[in-house]
């Protein structure tokens, strides 16, 4: 009976995480982005590819089931809007820019 409630909560959580990413101060975000890339850049090429972003999202939203997976997909989609040069990798600079490409 808790399924729909959990779904709503997970959706709200994903939305909050995305909002927080935009609201956090720029300097803090730069540090956070570099740390994120350093932590999840498994092949050390300086950017996060699909698998690395998936690992990062899984770390942010542990658990299993369709609800959490939908929330993860939403969060990952939010991250991919930041791939300004569309090379399939997210650099620290792209993460810090928060999707404001070329601005
Ligand atoms: Ca990488
Ligand atoms: Ca890129």
UniProtKB/TrEMBL annotation:
Keywords of the record: Signal
Keyword hit for Manganese: no
Domain of life of the organism encoding this protein: Bacteria
Signal sequence region: 1-27
This protein's name: EF-hand domain-containing protein
Organism, as annotated: Sphingomonas kyeonggiensis
